[in-house]
Amino acid sequence: MNIASVRRPIVPPTPPRAPDDMSFLGRVAVIRQNMIATWGQRAYEEDVLEGRFFLHKSFILNRPDAIRHVLLSNYENYTRTPAGIRMLRPVLGEGLLIAEGHAWTFQRRTLAPAFTPRATANLVPHMTAVLDETIAKLDARSGETVDLRETMQRMTLEIAGRTMFSFGMDRHGPTLRNFVVEYGERLGRPYFLDMLLPVSWPSPMDFARARFRKRWTEFVAMLIAERRAAGKKDGAPPRDLFDLMDEARDPETGKGFSDEQLIDEVATMILAGHETTATALFWALYLLALDPDTQEEVASETRGEHLDSMADIDRQKFTRAVIEETMRLYPPAFLIARAARAKDNAAGIEIGRGDIIMIAPWLLHRHEKLWDQPNAFVPKRFMSTEAPDRFAYLPFGAGPRVCVGAPFAQAESVLALARLIGAFRVELVDTVPVIPHGVVTTQPDRSPMFRITRR
Asked: Which positions does UniProt annotate for heme binding (predicted)?
C-alpha cells in the first residue's frame, strides 16, 4: 500500500527482533514475558514461516489468501489451542470468545442485535457522560503530570459499567481492576506445561486458575444481582447492554441465556470492552504525544463539534484514521492461534491434523510486503482510496468470529480521543521509550507520565 507524506513520519519504539535461529526452548522462555520479542526479521518479510511445536508443525501465516481460508472459508476446521483455552477460560468461561460449534452459533446469533449500530447509538449518552466527568477531573489538573494509562483504564471501566448496567463503578471498579491485574500478572501467562498438556489434563497452574474463576464468577454474579434489583419499568425500552442481553433470544429457537451463560457473556463484554479499549487509547495518546503535528490535526478536526451522537462521531474521519493506525501498530490482540481439527490445504499450504496456525496481527500489520513504511505512524494511509486487503488488517479479527463488539469499541475510541485531544494538549514528560509487550494484550512495559494543558 503506497502512501505519500510531506514530512517524515515518526517510528515508535519496538522490542529488538529475535535472532532468526533462536532455539525452541529460548522462545518458550521469552513467550511468558513478551511474545512479540520471539519473532525475528524473517517473520516480517516472508509469506509463511514453518516450524515445529512439540509433535506438530507450526505455521505463521502472513498471506491474506491463506488467512482468509483459515478465518473464513474453512473456519470450522480450526479451534483454539490448549494454551489459548487455558489462558481465557478462567476469566471468560464458555462465553462468546471461547465457545465452539453450536454453542458459539447460538451465542453469536443471540448477542448480535445488542451490538448493531443502532443499539450502539443508544449507548453513546453513557459514553459522553463519563467523558464529561473525566475531562472535568483532568481540567482540574491542567499543567500537571498525570498517568494517562491509569486514567484510560478507569474511564473505560466506568463506560463499561454504565453501558452494561446503567450504574457507575465507583464501588466495584477497584475490585474488578484487582481481578484483572491479578490474573494478567500471574495466571494469564503461559507456562511450559500449559502449552504441552491437552486441555483435559490439568496443568499445575490450572488449579490456581480454578480458584480464581470461582471468586471471579461470584463477583460478576453479584454485579448482575445488583442490576436486577434496580429493575426495569414495564414496557420501557432497553436502557443498557444488560437489558439487551437479558432479553435477547435466539432468532431461530427463541431461547435466551441461562444465568450461568449470562455471567460468562457479561464477564466477556466487561473485560473485552474496557481493557482493550483502554490500551488502544493509551497507545493513541502516546503516539500523538510523540507526533505533535498529527495531534494538532486531531484537535483541529474536533474544534466546534458537540460530539454527543453517532453522527458527530462519524464525521471525525481523521480521528478515526488515527485510531485505525494505532490499532495497526499496536493491535490489542497481537496473536490469533488455532489448531487444525483435520488435514487441510490453505491456499496451497498443506496443513496436518493438530498443526498449529499462528496469525499474528502484530506481524501482519508490520509486514514489509503488505505495507509502505510499515513501522511508521501514518494515519492518512487509512484515508486513502487504496484500502488495505481485508485479511492484512485484523484489529478485531475477521470472518464469522470477528469481534461482535467492534462497532461499539470503534465508536467509543473515536469519541474519547476526539474529546480528549479537543480539550487538552498532551506531552510526554520523559523521553524513555515505551516498549510494547505481548502477554494477554499488547501492553506498554511501563506507564509514562504525561503533561496535559487545557487548550
From this structure: 403
Angle at 412 between CA 408 and CA 418, to 5 degrees: 150
Whether residue 442 contacts residue 332, with contact meaning beta carbons closer than 8 Å, is answered with yes
Residue 15 lies in a domain: no
Per-residue pLDDT tens for 31-58? 777 889 999 999 999 999 998 877 789 9
Distance CA 307, CA 83 (A): 42
Spatial distance between the Cα atoms of 17 and 375, rounded to a whole number of angstroms: 13
**Does residue 222 sit in helix, strand or coil?**
helix
C-alpha cell at 168: 457507575
CATH number at residue 209: 1.10.630.10
CB atoms under 10 Å from CB of 39, counted, come to: 25
The domain in which residue 175 lies consists of 24-454
If pLDDT is split at 50, 70 and 90, which confidence band does 116 have?
A: confident
Is 19 a member of any domain?
no
Report the number of distinct structural domains present in the chain. 1
**Is 270 labeled as ligand-binding?**
no
The Cα–Cα gap between 361 and 334 comes to 5
The whole model's pTM is what?
0.91
- The rounded distance, in Å, linking the Cα atoms of 442 and 455 is 30
What is the average pLDDT across 204-212? 92
Residue 77 counted as domain residue? yes
> How many angstroms separate the CA atoms of 349 and 351, rounded?
6
Burial (0-12, 13-18, 19+ Cβ within 10 Å), 360: buried
